[in-house]
From TrEMBL:
Residues 532-653 form the AAA domain. This is Putative tyrosine-protein kinase in cps region. One of its GO terms (molecular function) is identical protein binding. Residues 372-452 form the Tyrosine-protein kinase G-rich domain. The keyword Transmembrane helix applies. It comes from the Bacteria. The chain crosses the membrane at residues 32-51, 429-449. Pfam families: AAA_31, GNVR, WZC_N, Wzz. Keywords: ATP-binding, Cell inner membrane, Cell membrane, Coiled coil, Kinase, Membrane, Nucleotide-binding, Transferase, Transmembrane, Transmembrane helix, Tyrosine-protein kinase. The keyword Iron does not apply.
């Protein structure tokens, strides 16, 4: 025996405990969907982790030191001239990523030629790697004919053993054929393949990109970051599929940057050295000319000697000229580094003015000497001044040569480029974990979303809130589900197999109908007749199941019961009764058959049945015929109970016509299918037609954790079966 009670929930539906319990119940109800979805995502994550191409990382470490001249012992002006401050890491980062540095790498490694093997989409590359069938090719030169497209070329291996291949254009036309290690030329194209590891008919895509595009690609893939704050140590890193390629690229970039830094630091010395070497011949010529003039004048004037006063003036003049020449060299250096408004430049100009004033004063003093003395003084001064300038320039040239030779730059390569042993991407364990978590979260979100969008009634309390009593909650029968499958497959069954109340009388659904029998007895005590109409809001809710099996339960209780299938549109109750649908109700109402001809016995004692009959074109008009009242009055007098199964009231008006003759009207709602609003509209539709709905039968109730944990207890959660021992 089964116990079917409908107690009120023990907790109010608005509390937090009920909400948490209902959410927990929703997860339990959807546990298989959550488990399967999570498992599928986990499998996808594992598959991706296995098939994804490993990405390796290569890096190098560079130190940027404070600038200094190559020979600190030079000191003085030379140290000031070639000294400098500390380089900015941000500035050096931009220099490393400049076209000047990266362009050298692009040219040296031929990065304007892009070649890659072709595999099946999505999984081909990963499968080839797992099976050890990866293809490899190295193209050291690829020249495209003028005016031809740069991309879309394809290399096809024609003979793997001999290393022979064929180059095709984007339309598959052959351009040239070649062999590994030999330069292939045809129609303005040049292709030189140095290495080829592939099977016959293997294909490689080949394209030529511009130098600027190759540099931009390198800029995007190269990462330069300072290690720590203001440490002056930069890390150059790059990721890629080919370990050898990324190592070669990072190594070449670091070396190019180092070399340009050395060249830049020695550029000032080189420029000054060039300047001095250009002027040395001129100064030497001036010195020789001055010496010739002095010797010639002495010979003409029989070796005139200078007085003590003239010698003193000469020494002073030579000293002033020397100082002015030094200021001239300093002015050349300072003008390259500072503007004329800089204090150092202004100080230099003030010193020059002072020396020029002193020179002018000395010239006035020399004017007082005799003419011969003045001329000898002038010629001697030119010789000594030019001689000092020449010697000073020679010394500067030697110093600059030393500076240039000793320049090492302020950049040092600490760590040469190396490739990490293990791939940095993909992180397989993380991918699998994230994919599993994503599957779990997505499935949980779907479960909650379905619960939020689901509007079907799941509790008798929701129906009773409309003022409509629930007479029974009939659980979903697995046995009946199997019978429905057999009906759809058109298997031949007898009534002992097709009617659940006869085939499995201990089923929980039948126990619920026995409870309904008791409730219905009291509900009909005040009814005007013993005719019960069964209807509902929509099709597919189990009206025919309830009508047929309740009739069988009543009949087994010793009552004479007549079941009428009044759904003349889609009624199929004859399948459960295992009789023919013709003749039936439609035939009787149309006057084609007599009452005795349409009443059939399905094989259950005390149970008679009238099928729907032939499908008429006007079911509603037939039901309005006086023969229906005659039939129902006769059935009411000759049977203890008359059950009339009708179509949905929200679809057609047939139930409203039949309900006018029935003493009791019951509606059936399906658990999780019919919304509360739909049941309310059904009740209101009957009331509009003057028919009182006595109560509701909640059919196909499923035991759900969301209902249990949400506070809906006691709806056929227990069974009390017989002990067979």
């Amino acid at each position: 025996m089964s116990i079917a009670q409908n107690p009120q929930p023990s907790t109010s539906p608005g509390t937090d405990e009920v909400d948490i319990g209902k959410l927990f119940g929703i997860l339990i109800d959807n546990r298989w969907m959550i488990i399967i979805t999570t498992f599928i995502f986990a499998v996808i994550g594992i598959g991706y982790a296995l098939l994804a191409t490993p990405i390796y990382k290569a890096d190098a470490l560079i130190q940027i030191e404070a600038k200094s001249s190559g020979m600190p012992a030079l000191g003085g002006d030379m140290a000031e001239m070639f000294g400098g401050g500390e380089s900015s890491a941000t500035t050096e980062t931009e220099i490393i990523k400049s076209r000047m540095v990266l362009g050298e790498t692009v040219d040296k490694l031929n990065l304007t030629t892009v070649v890659s093997p072709e595999y099946l989409p999505m999984v081909g590359k990963g499968l080839a790697r797992l099976m050890g069938e990866q293809h490899f090719i190295n193209v050291s030169r690829f020249t495209v004919a003028d005016g031809r497209e740069l991309g879309g070329y394809q290399i096809v291996v024609t003979n793997a053993d001999k290393g022979e291949y064929q180059l095709n254009d984007s339309e598959g036309r052959k351009i040239l054929t070649g062999k590994v290690g030999e330069l292939a030329q045809a129609n303005g194209y040049q292709l030189f393949v140095t290495d080829l590891q592939a099977t016959k008919d293997a294909e490689f895509s080949l394209a030529k990109i511009s130098r600027i595009d190759a540099i931009q690609n390198l800029q995007r893939s190269l990462s330069v970051a300072e290690q720590g704050k203001q440490t002056g140590i930069l890390q150059l890193s790059m990721t890629g599929e080919n370990r050898a390629d990324i190592k070669a690229i990072v190594d070449d970039i670091s070396k190019n940057y180092f070399l340009q830094n050395v060249e830049r630091n020695s550029a000032e010395a080189e420029n000054s050295l060039t300047f001095l070497k250009q002027h040395l011949p001129e100064i030497k010529i001036q010195l020789m000319t001055a010496e010739d003039k002095l010797n010639s004048y002495r010979q003409q004037n029989e070796s005139v000697d200078l007085s003590l006063e003239a010698k003193s003036a000469l020494e002073t003049m030579v000293g002033l000229e020397s100082q002015l020449n030094q200021l001239t060299f300093k002015e050349t250096d300072i003008s390259q580094r500072f503007t004329k408004e800089h204090p150092a430049y202004i100080s230099l100009m003030d010193k020059r003015k002072t020396l020029l004033k002193e020179q002018a004063r000395l010239n006035k003093r020399i004017e007082t000497l005799p003419a011969t003395q003045r001329e000898i003084l002038r010629l001697t001064r030119d010789v000594e001044v030019n001689q000092q300038i020449y010697v000073q320039l020679l010394n500067k040239v030697q110093e600059l040569n030393i500076v240039k030779a000793s320049t090492v730059g302020n950049v040092r390569i600490l760590d040469a480029a190396q490739v990490y042993t293990n791939a940095v991407k993909p992180k397989k364990a993380l991918i699998v974990v994230l994919a599993t978590l994503l599957g779990g979260m997505l499935s949980v979100a779907i479960a909650f979303l379905r619960a939020a969008l689901h509007r079907g009634v799941e509790s008798p309390d929701e129906i009773e809130a409309l003022g409509l009593p629930v007479y029974a909650s009939i659980p979903l029968s697995a046995w009946q589900t199997d019978l429905e499958k057999k009906f759809k497959s058109k298997q031949q069954l007898n009534v002992n197999q097709a009617l659940l109340a006869v085939a499995n009388p201990a089923d929980l659904s039948i126990e619920a109908l026995r409870s309904l029998r008791t409730s219905l007895h009291f509900a009909m005590m005040e009814a005007r007749n013993n005719i019960v109409m069964i209807s509902g809001p929509s099709p597919g809710i189990g009206k025919s199941f309830v009508s047929a099996n309740m009739a069988a339960v009543m009949a087994k209780g010793g009552q004479r019961v007549l079941v009428i299938d009044a759904d003349m549109r889609k009624g199929r109750m004859e399948r459960q009764m295992c009789v023919d649908s013709k003749p039936g109700l439609a035939d009787y109402l149309s006057g084609q058959q007599t009452l005795e001809q349409v009443i059939k016995s399905p094989g259950v004692e005390g149970l008679d049945f009238i099928a729907r009959g032939a499908v008429p074109p006007n079911p509603s008009e037939l039901l309005m015929h006086p023969r229906l009242k005659t039939l129902l009055d006769w059935a009411s007098d000759n049977y203890d109970l008359v059950l009339v199964d009708t179509p949905p009231i929200l679809a057609v008006t047939d139930p409203a016509i039949v309900g006018a003759h029935a003493g009791t009207t019951m509606i059936v709602a399906r658990f999780g299918l019919n919304p509360v609003k739909e049941i309310e509209v059904t009740k209101h539709r009957f009331e509009q037609n003057g028919i009182e709905v006595k109560g509701c039968i909640l059919n196909a109730v499923v035991r759900k954790a969301s209902s249990t944990y949400g506070g809906n207890y006691g709806y056929y959660n227990y069974s009390y079966a017989s002990d067979n021992k």
